UniProtKB/TrEMBL annotation:
This is DUF2969 domain-containing protein. InterPro entries: DUF2969. It holds the Pfam family DUF2969. It comes from Marinilactibacillus psychrotolerans.
């Protein structure tokens, strides 16, 4: 039997490391950080999961999607 879809409130916050040369966002679920997305000016996006695993993405949106997918697979 399939599980029902659950609505999850995801929050995206800028970190204190935010500057003109760096975009850094934290992805939160239930006020817990599940990952971080960093993009230095004109470079690839670095995606860090709470498990300390790191990957790269083409866009910030893709990086956020990757973090949410990882959360849905392993932490829900």
């Amino acid at each position: 039997m399939a599980n029902r879809n659950k609505n999850i409130e995801v929050e995206i916050k800028e970190t204190t490391n935010q500057s003109d040369a760096l975009t850094e966002l934290e992805v939160l679920v239930k006020n817990k950080v599940i990952g971080t997305v960093r993009q230095p000016l004109d470079e690839q996006v670095a995606v860090s999961y709470k498990t300390e695993k790191e990957m790269t993405a083409k866009t910030i949106d893709e990086g956020i999607q990757m973090i949410i997918a990882e959360y849905n697979l392993h932490d829900q």
